[in-house]
Amino acid sequence: MRAIIGFFVMVQGGLGLAGLFFADGPWGVLRHWVDLPWPAYGALFVAGAALLVWGESDRKGKGAGAAA
Description:
By secondary structure, this protein is mainly α. It has a domain at 1-27. The protein is built from 3 helices and no strands. This is Integral membrane protein. Keywords: Membrane, Transmembrane, Transmembrane helix.
């Protein structure tokens, strides 16, 4: 579940950054709810990536422990 949430958070952060750097404003769903500065979109991207890695490593760790 962490990996799925992390993926969506990472995508929203990436879309926000990409829209701010390459277009007139942020892209994604978050722009409809809040007005965030570019460092916040970067933090969302990093936090989402961390959740994604944590979720995937936890899933792989549980699978390896069950096989042993």
